[in-house]
Design brief:
The structure holds 2 protein chains of 2 kinds. Chain A is 0% helix and 55% strand. Chain A starts with a strand and ends with a strand. Chain B is 0% helix and 51% strand. The chains are: A mainly beta, B mainly beta.
Chain lengths: 112, 113
């Protein structure tokens, strides 16, 4: 069963605006990862945050993790049309071989 | 560049006709995964291999089988595809050890006639 829920399910913004996506999960985790999926393509890993970290940055991406609330957020600053994609959070527990459980995803549309 | 390659990108098969999807990797990763992703849904793990150790998810139908003849290749066999098996099938790899991201191929979109 899927662990995570993402909010919103769809987000539509203009180029240059910031986009924030939220993810909630149910069980304890080892780390949380965010992936991007362009239409008809595979998933691309964006950023990984460990359970003992609270915030992480990578270029225009900022991820926060609140383990007490079992939630994470992904912020994309100064969005571009090329950021249009689906974004998934995925959690990894402490068990076998890096198994990930994916959230339902947020569809982001950035209008030029 | 090291990568995960899935062939074919698009596969059409007939209802009940066995089909095999393939995945190869040049990353030399220990673990290979197969996911099923239906339209507008999250990827759902079917099974994974750690080296030759096969791990099936509890809710993966018996209709789905997998083979991993060596480190580089992994196959997904669907013995008798039904209409409900039409989906994108994604292969991914990772290295054992924490924390590690997964590296995905571009998927095979399977259609059932």
């Amino acid at each position: 069963s899927q662990q995570g829920e993402e909010d919103p399910q769809a987000l539509s913004i203009q180029e240059g605006e910031n986009a924030t996506m939220n993810c909630s999960y149910k069980t304890s985790i080892n780390n949380l990862q965010w992936y991007r999926q362009n239409s008809g393509r595979g998933l691309v890993h964006l950023i990984l945050i460990r359970s003992n970290e609270r915030e992480k940055h990578s270029g225009r991406l900022r991820v926060t993790l609140d383990t007490s609330k079992k939630s994470s957020s992904l912020l994309i600053t100064a969005s571009r049309a090329a950021d249009t994609a689906s974004y998934f959070c995925a959690t990894r527990g402490g068990t076998s071989y890096g198994k990930l459980t994916f959230g339902q995803g947020t569809i982001l549309t950035v209008h030029p | 560049d090291a990568m995960v390659i899935q062939n074919p990108r698009y596969q059409v098969t007939q209802f009940g006709k066995p089909v095999t999807l393939s995945c190869s990797q040049t990353l030399n990763h220990n673990v290979m995964y197969w996911y099923q992703q239906k339209s507008s849904q999250a990827p759902k793990l079917l099974f994974h291999y750690y080296d030759k150790d096969f791990n099936n998810e509890a809710d993966t139908p018996d209709n789905f089988q997998s083979r991993r003849p060596n480190t580089s290749f992994c196959f997904l066999d669907i013995r008798s595809p039904g209409l409900g098996d039409a989906a994108m099938y994604l292969c991914a790899t990772s290295r054992v050890g924490q924390p590690q991201p997964q590296h995905f191929g571009d998927g095979t979109r399977l259609s059932i006639l």
